[in-house]
Design brief:
Number of domains: 6
Mean pLDDT: 84
Distance between the termini: 90 Å
CATH superfamily of the largest domain: membrane protein fhac: a member of the omp85/tpsb transporter family
CATH topology of the largest domain: Porin
Structural class: alpha+beta
Shape: globular
Radius of gyration: 39 Å
């Protein structure tokens, strides 16, 4: 047989085979393509015009049940009667394959008819997730992009599996695997199931530091957001490794060192090492501390004529010898620029010029007052806030449209927006406006939940076992308002309160508050019950950088009831039985730098308040209270020292007598080591231990040191405390009694020493106090042990 004839016979045979077995069209097209390519090669490309072409007058589509025939032919791109080459036919074949609608596509030329055979992807009937315990179906299904009643796409299912795996990675389970599977149903439907093997949590097994000399590993661990897993991790809890949190940890370390004078500190590297079992990490921070620097000479100069430098020097609150702190510089610059604004000077910029003195490790700072560029704020654009109103964000800016542009003020506004707690992310950037002399401030925020519903349990030796229900919303209706509702019940008392706060009343930095409260007390140690109901409203506004002044009005209905008519009651308490209304106006001044001042290692808190009763009601008195407290961190912040001194006095008017509901009673917030009402005036003629009467005056001093327990790893969350409390409750307007034992209301200084254990557990913070009275009267009631626990679910 002639060679050409043999080849032709084989080609005709293969064409016939393709017609008999249409599912082999892919091989058929490939065979045709190879034959044409070989022919072109043998003939040297001399006959490209004789490439095989087809002309179809009819089309037959097989296998489609949901996809319309016209839609398939449109995607194929072949028209009846038109000549089409094998390459063009292959292009149409590829388009059908890439459409994502078919598992398999075959095209079979058969004379003047083109047969298109499709195998449609099934429809997803339902989507399920199996094997997940740590992450809920609701959370994971929000990640899945495949949807019921849509065409099943294997590629999309694989992408969904990767997304679920990534969610487990973020939760610290790097060993988690996700496998998408389908279950065939009738009518070309499938159930899509993601089978999850969660694996174990990848914890931070060891968190260590290299290069730290000034601060121990224990102290630096408390700085980081990441924590180290402990030996009793199942009970105490541990932290998972999250790679995205490393950047935050680096920033926290930098801020910690900078605020303590280490201006040259650097985090050289952070190395996470995954153990072979993939369930734990060794995380190592390599740092270079540098040297601790202090401020040297502080000066103020100006390049702007007409400035009285003495006024500006008085605004500088940095003293030579203070630890270098970038916040000190920033706040001083703000004060100087604010003074310039108050003097009517615009576009004033203050630039700190810093000169290092290597010999004595100080930094000389000269604040230069100079004229800045004339740039104005064209507008402020806010995006990303779907719930929070624009005005809630805009009021954090001291700058409005048309004001001179101050970059430092814009950065400060960004920090205030982040401090609101309403947003998971808040970015404030600037860009050029419609002219070079104008800028546009862009605020891009990402909202986060601001409400919480809590169910809790608590216990204390004083109040017994109790439960608590609370609802709190700090961004009520997106207006930046606070709404709280709490119910707290114990075995001997119950309290409930509704609180509403509008932080920007009348569009000013003026906080308007209103609360309604109700409480009942029925203590076994007392022979009477009390009930209190009332409301309080107030206005608070800033009086300085760290101080606030508030005015309040309070209306309270108090009731004291004898528990048993046959049980004797002190005449002083008998006189207080029944209902009485207290209507009082007052004010409170507070100054607080603890955790907020320029020096993070120390701070003070001062509070002074007075309440004037007699604006209506049944009582007339002046009630004065004060508190002075200080905090200091020593030994490289390892030990926290707290000192508190407070007191109060009630001055009755018109020769009246104070009531039980108004007088001061001891509790654990005054001095520890004694029961509630365990010190102070007592009528020993009544009750087994004498009736606690309270007093018109009290003073208390509390000294406490909190320190780590060196024999326990810091990650357990257990620390120790030692304290000394001293105080007194004394003074009555009337000491009448019907018994033989006189009432002693003289000043007597009670005191007690104790140790405490603080344990931060998964179920909540625990505080154990062990105390012993060192100075007491014979009738005082001690409390040598106190346990307080509170947990919310």
């Amino acid at each position: 047989m002639d060679t050409d004839q043999g080849n032709g016979a084989r080609t005709r045979a293969e064409d016939a085979s393709c017609a008999r077995h249409p599912r082999q069209i892919g091989r058929c097209l490939r065979t045709t393509g190879l034959a044409l390519t070989a022919m072109a090669f043998l003939l040297g490309g001399a006959i490209p015009t004789v490439a095989q072409s087809y002309r179809f007058s009819e089309f037959e589509v097989q296998g489609n049940t949901r996809i319309e025939t016209a839609s398939i032919l449109s995607t194929l791109g072949v028209s009846p009667g038109e000549s089409v080459t094998a390459a063009e036919l292959n292009d149409g074949f590829q388009r059908l394959q890439r459409s994502g609608l078919f598992q398999n596509v075959e095209i079979v030329p058969q004379g003047g008819t083109l047969i298109v055979i499709v195998d449609e992807f099934p429809t997803v009937s339902q989507i399920a997730i199996e094997g997940n315990r740590r992450l809920s179906d609701e959370d994971l299904l929000t990640i899945v992009q495949s949807q019921p009643r849509r065409v099943y796409d294997p590629a999309q299912a694989e992408r969904d599996a990767v997304a679920i795996t990534e969610a487990y990675t973020q939760a610290g389970r790097l060993a988690a695997t996700v496998q998408p599977k389908i279950i065939r149903r009738s009518d070309n439907r499938v159930d899509l199931v993601f089978e999850v093997a969660e694996g174990e949590v990848s914890e931070v097994e060891r968190l260590s530091f290299v290069g730290n000399r000034a601060f121990s590993d224990r102290r630096l661990r408390r700085v980081l957001e990441t924590t180290q897993a402990g030996l009793f991790r199942r009970l105490i809890g541990s932290d998972t490794f999250i790679a995205d949190r490393i950047a935050l940890d680096v920033r926290l370390l930098n801020d910690f060192y900078l605020s303590r004078g280490y201006a040259d500190m650097e985090v050289l590297s952070v190395v996470p090492e995954l153990v072979p079992s993939r369930d734990a990490y060794f995380l190592t921070f390599t740092i270079r501390e540098g040297q601790q620097l202090r401020f040297g000479n502080i000066g103020v100069s100006a390049t702007v004529p007409g400035i009285d430098l003495s006024e500006y020097r008085s605004e500088v609150q940095i003293d030579p010898g203070d630890l270098f702190n970038p916040q000190s510089l920033e706040r001083t610059i703000q004060r100087l620029e604010l003074l310039a604004t108050r003097q009517g000077r615009t576009f004033i910029r203050v630039t700190p010029q810093i000169e290092r003195n290597p010999r004595d490790l100080t930094l000389d700072v000269n604040f230069v007052i100079e004229r800045g560029e004339r740039v104005f704020v064209e507008r402020i654009d806010i995006e990303g806030n779907s719930t929070t109103l624009d005005r809630v964000i805009r009021r954090e800016f001291n700058t409005v449209e048309g004001d001179p542009f101050n970059p430092r003020e814009i950065r400060a506004a960004a920090e205030r927006i982040r401090a609101l707690g309403y947003f998971s992310q808040a970015e404030v950037t600037t860009r050029e406006g419609t002219t070079p002399e104008q800028v546009i401030v862009d605020v891009d925020v990402e909202e986060q939940p601001t409400g919480s519903l809590g169910l809790g349990a608590n216990y204390s030796a004083e109040a017994g076992v109790g439960v608590a229900l609370s609802f709190a919303e700090t961004n009520f209706l997106g207006r930046g308002q606070t709404f709280n509702f709490t119910i707290d019940t114990g075995s001997e008392s119950s309290n409930s309160q509704v609180l509403f706060v509008e932080p920007y009343f009348l569009n000013r930095d003026l906080a308007l508050s209103f609360s309604v409260f109700y409480s009942e007390s029925s203590r076994d140690s007392l022979s009477f019950d009390t009930r209190t109901a009332g409301f309080r409203t107030g206005l608070t506004f800033p009086a300085g950088e760290y101080s606030r002044l508030g005015f309040t009005y309070t209306y309270v209905n108090n009731k004291l009831t004898r528990r048993d008519d046959d049980e004797p009651l002190s005449p002083i308490l008998e006189a207080d039985a029944g209902e009485a209304v207290t209507s009082a106006a007052g004010y409170t001044y507070t100054y607080d730098t603890i955790g907020r001042g320029l020096d993070p290692t120390r701070g003070v808190r001062f509070r002074f308040a007075q309440e004037f009763a007699g604006v209506g009601g049944d009582e007339e008195f002046i009630k004065t209270t004060f508190l002075a407290a200080g905090q200091r961190r020593v030994r490289n912040d390892e030990i926290v020292l707290n000192a508190t001194f407070e007191g109060g006095a009630i001055t009755t008017l018109d020769d009246g007598a104070s009531r039980q509901s108004t007088r001061f009673f001891n509790n654990q917030n005054i001095i520890r080591g004694f029961e509630s009402g365990g010190i102070g005036p007592r009528d020993l003629n009544f009750d087994e231990d004498g009736a606690a009467l309270g007093g018109n005056y009290f003073v208390a001093a509390r000294l406490e040191a909190q320190f780590p327990l060196g024999f326990l790893p810091d990650e357990y969350g257990i620390s120790g405390a030692a304290f000394l409390d001293a105080g007194s409750v004394w003074g009555l307007d009337d000491k009448m009694t019907t018994g033989p034992i006189p009432i002693d209301d003289d000043f007597f200084l009670n005191s007690a020493v104790g140790v405490g254990i603080n344990w931060d557990t998964l179920i909540g913070p625990l505080r154990f106090n062990f105390t012993r009275a060192i100075n007491k009267q014979s009738f005082d009631e001690e409390q040598n042990f106190d346990l307080t626990i509170q947990t919310r679910f």
